[in-house]
From TrEMBL:
Every Myb-like domain range: 124-172, 173-255
Domain HTH myb-type residues, every copy: 124-161
Name this polypeptide is given: Transcription termination factor 1
Record organism: Fulmarus glacialis (Northern fulmar)
Taxonomic lineage: Eukaryota, Metazoa, Chordata, Craniata, Vertebrata
Pfam families: Myb_DNA-bind_6
GO molecular function terms attached to this record: chromatin binding
Record GO cellular component, one term: nucleolus
Superkingdom of this protein's organism: Eukaryota
Length: 349
């Protein structure tokens, strides 16, 4: 398929395809186009965003089956072949002979590249090594001074995953404050959020309003835009003294206080009732994965609060109440809360 035809055909499945480089489009035309058309015939649309538990399980199954077929003895060898130079030639030959690309992506309606990255993240033994020690942080600073943003090289030197070292460096590259927020920091955060929302709204208005309408218009936005899909790395840079995740958590707290007029919605009997309602509603939804939950709708179980507040409360609930929650699926966690924790909360109430 020539490049223009490939772009045109892929655009049906990936609307932003014209922003992708030509070399990536050629690869997608080879790896994905036929798959996407087959999924379309089955009435299945191409997915983006977070992987569901079902998709993660399918990736595991595809990798395990490929290892059985080829006799390659570990997922690490299969997905991180460059770590095993003595076996590299044999592994690459087996991958080509047994159609690795097709086998890995089988049954998953996503671009192959995203499936491959997800598999690497899942099976990288360097990806789950806990907190960084002081010595590791100093090493990371030293290696970055020597090698810049070559995260692949740095990850090999530190025996951590690429993503882990890149994210940790973004966290420690400047003097991050971990104490209570000062008044000045809070004001910087609020100004930063206002700036990005105002800029986004002006771009949207440019497409729908005349210049005279824009100049006489007060900033009026949907409430959802105050907490959905904000560019937190940009906001982190504007605040300067806080990591992006801290900015997001602080902004959620500010919004929650404003929306609830400072009421303590998650304390005392109100808190018990909120937990009971949250568990019941999640159980009724019968969702297999957190991605399938409408968190916006669930916010009513606690009160008029942002979705991130509800998600944070659910996270705290599962961590504090569900033993070995990391090894359980989302539906198993909900079942445990409903069967074991709910009666206890109702009795306490």
């Amino acid at each position: 398929v020539d490049l223009d035809t490939a772009k045109k055909e892929l655009e049906e499945f990936i609307p932003h395809v014209r922003n992708i480089s030509d070399s990536s489009i050629r690869k997608m035309a080879g790896r994905d186009l036929v798959r996407f058309k087959q999924f379309k015939k089955q009435g299945i649309s191409v997915k983006f965003g977070r992987f569901s538990q079902k998709e993660n399980n399918k990736i595991r199954k595809n990798v395990e089956e490929f290892l059985l077929i080829t006799g390659i003895d570990s997922a690490e060898k299969l997905l991180f072949t460059s770590r095993y130079p003595e076996d590299k030639e044999t592994i690459n030959r087996l991958k080509a002979e047994h159609l690795f690309c097709e086998k890995l992506s089988e049954g998953i309606p996503r671009p192959w590249r995203l499936i491959y990255y997800r598999a690497r993240k899942m099976f990288d033994p360097n990806n789950y090594k806990g907190r960084y020690t002081k010595e590791e942080k100093e090493k990371l600073k030293k290696y970055h001074a020597l090698h810049g943003n070559d995260w692949k090289k740095i990850s090999e030197m530190m025996s951590r995953s690429n993503l882990s070292v890149a994210m940790k460096y973004s966290e420690i590259k400047s003097a991050i404050n971990y104490g209570p927020w000062s008044k000045e920091e809070t004001q910087k955060l609020m100004r930063a959020v206002e700036e990005v929302i105002r800029k986004r709204t002006e771009v949207e208005d440019a497409n729908s309003l005349s210049s005279s309408e824009r100049s006489h218009r007060d900033l009026s936005i949907d409430r959802e835009k105050l907490y959905q899909k904000l560019p937190w790395t940009e906001i982190e840079a504007k605040v300067g003294t806080r990591y992006w995740r801290q900015c997001k958590q602080k902004w959620t707290t500010i919004l929650t206080n404003k929306m609830t007029k400072g009421q303590q919605l998650y304390r005392g009997t109100k808190g018990l009732q909120a937990k009971i309602n949250l568990i019941k509603r999640l159980y009724e939804m019968k969702a297999e994965d957190a991605n399938e939950v409408n968190w916006e709708e669930l916010s009513n179980t606690i009160g008029d609060v942002p979705r991130a507040y509800v998600q944070a409360k659910f996270y705290k609930l599962k961590v504090s109440c569900v033993p070995f929650w990391q090894k359980k699926t989302f539906s198993e966690i909900i079942d445990y809360l409903f069967e074991e924790k709910l009666p206890e909360l109702e009795e306490k109430l």
